[in-house]
Amino acid sequence: MVPKPTDADCERFRSFVPDLAGVEVKPMFGNLGAFINRKMFMGLFGSDIGVKLPEEEREELLAEAGSGPFGPIERPMGGYVTLPGNWSADQAERWIQAAHRAVAALPAKTAKPPKAKGRPT
Length: 121
What we know:
alpha+beta, 6-stranded antiparallel sheet
């Protein structure tokens, strides 16, 4: 079961999202995601905020008390780490910026063509 964020969780998440060109916040499986070039660099799962980091930075963040895997316990999202829940946006900024830089450097995801409506004749 996917945990649903409260309005306060969503508001907190949005306050952590950097105000940078090309960043979009979109619904994601009942939660929220922050995207750059159609790729998620930051997500909300219930009340947890997670960031996608390169391995070295991921290990460094995992050493912080209160951090951990991001997503469902039985199947956490690869490459993502949950920010400690008691952190402020200022405390999280370094990690959010690192996630944004890392994902922005990846090739842009292309849009899928729209599905054809109806049956072909």
